[in-house]
Give the backbone structure.
Amino acid sequence: MTVSVFGAAARSFTPEDLVQTNRVGASAVSPGAAAVAYIQSHYSIASKRQTTRLLVQSLGSDHHDHDHAGSPVEVVKHSADARPNPPKSSSAAEDSDSHAEQEPEQEPQPEALKNKLKPSQPIWLSDSVLAFVAPDAASGGSTLYAVTEHKGRWSKPHALASLPVPISSAQYSAESGVFAFTADVYGGTSKLKDTAEIDRQEQERADTARVYDDLWVRHWDTFASPKLPQIHTLRLVSTSDGSFKPKDQPKNIIKDTDANGGRLEAADSFVFSPSGLQVAFVAKQPGRDYAWKTTSFVYLADVDGSAATPINAGDGGASASPSFSHDGKRIAYVQMASPTYEADRNQIKIYDVAGKTTTNVAADWDRSPSQVGWADADTLLVSYNDYGRNKLARVDIASGAVTSIVSNHSVSSFAEIPGTDKFLLNYSALDSPNDLYTITADGADLARVTNANPTLGKEITLSVPEDVEFVGADNATIHGFLLRPPQYDASGKYPLAFVIHGGPQSSFLDAWSTRWNLNVLAAAGFVTVALDFQGSTGYGQAFTDAIRNQWGGKPYDSLMLSLEQLLVEHPYIDPNRMAALGASYGGYMINWINGHTDVFKALVNHDGMFSTISTYYSTEELYFPETEFEGTPFDPKARKNYEKWSPERFVNNWKTPTLVIHSEKDYRLVVSEGLSTFTALRRQNVPARLLYFPDENHWVLKPANSLRWHQEVLEWIKKWTADGGKDAVASNQTIDPTKFAVQHGGDSSL
């Protein structure tokens, strides 16, 4: 089924537009399926403020005619200065930026406009009572608030429960009256206030030392602490005025679960059983091998904390996406077979709760579903990556037959709409930001619910992606996308932005991105090409596995072979004005390219790898390099693999001007990898620039930092691919006084 995205428009898309798009977040459908509540955020460049709204959108009286269901109603609004260190005089005035605000109309709610709560995690307690979680700045914890709807008007928020620690993954079961959430707590504590008290005592310590006896020490962007996320439950009861109140105190329902003598670290996502008396969740098995094994299990826990047991204990790999059947008798989930390979194929399984048996479904299907749910007793619904799209499909449980029902663009998540045969989708495309849609379980009636950015495609042009295919290493088909500049003229010549994805076991999708957004590059005048080489997902497990111990081999060969074919098939691309850009593994490939070819005039390396060996000893998820390079670097045989594919070996060949980007809180590929890259470039007098973020991780997420990132990237590739080649350098010496640069030299020479 095809969704029309955007047509002709007035002006080009800019980085300023990207960071100021409205972003649709967490959502929840009311029990009667009459409305959906969702979070929407917006950043204003002019005011430097981040605005977060809790909105309610009617699904239409017949839950069908969404295009005529009216504008969303604003229930709660919060606005705050988004600067890292805002001045004390910063007021809470409303955003006043007129540039690309893209705010859809909402019915005014005076009560909401006065509200200063930052809403998150919307959940419906009834058809007329909507709850949400907001941080409590005074206590450092969270508060559960509720608003009540009466004759189309929403009440002011009132507090239902104050919790002394931050919480996440809030959910509610109307059947059991249980409110559940995850909270980071210390071992041995039975009450949330005990964790809050230990936190207070920690703040009074005279020293700041942390001591570790085993791995991992840190993960992603956070150092490990004695606290672990665990699931808590709290019973709510209705009050005489139609609202709710707590019946008891929160209970940690997995505190006493013994797992190899360790505590369970619950993943953020968990699901209630239809009765609301149990939850299913995913947790890794504690142990010394935490950093070099991916194994995690699906646990079934009673909401009263009386039991928590794994349903798939063994030596398998990572588990994900548990989902109860409508009668609660079965649990569908996905699990990988390998305990050390994070990109193994997810296999669909169904667990019989009473019989304690497991059945494999569609065992021969060569795709890796990321989410699984139930369409009916005989049919599952799954989302999966396939040929550049994140599709939605029905899976017949008995036969394993897979039937795609959403094949275009990308579904990032789906949720059942209670009491109907419909599902709520978070859906996007390369030329259409994320919005909410509904679809029936048979794939009919795909309909838009929200339109968070109505000016895109009307006042602002977005390039429409084109599928491209080339022949790569081993005669493999290399698929990807090509976007032409909005002002494309077949008689002209255009520079190329050749984008290389990270992972490496991931892919370029026909999906919106707030980070590597291909439309930003195309709008800047570049023919933009993004290809899926060996190691990419969505083309079968063998293609994904083909990168193992081939990091600079088959992927590089496929990229270069595809580039040659691209230039022949698309003669409007200027071969003398090409730039290559990549992040993570893509950053590794940028360093590898610099050591093996000089066909590009400019390179951009974001959080890339400099040395395979140093990366092994500084990264956190050791199962990743141990699988990719077939062992550890202290094993003599495997060390040869690390050395063979290390970009550091070829720095003497580096000559292409490179923008190096790295962030301090990147613990996946630590900042020294970026510093090493920059050092190798500048010590050899290769033009280079270092863009450093002290407060970002592997991704650049803060809006103002994202804007600076895009500005620096575009300036760099424009500078080196401009007509006249290096002559463009001398004329590019204008310094923007609003930007902080430690050094700024027009010729980038020592």
Notes: The chain has a mean pLDDT of 91. The longest strand covers residues 227-238.
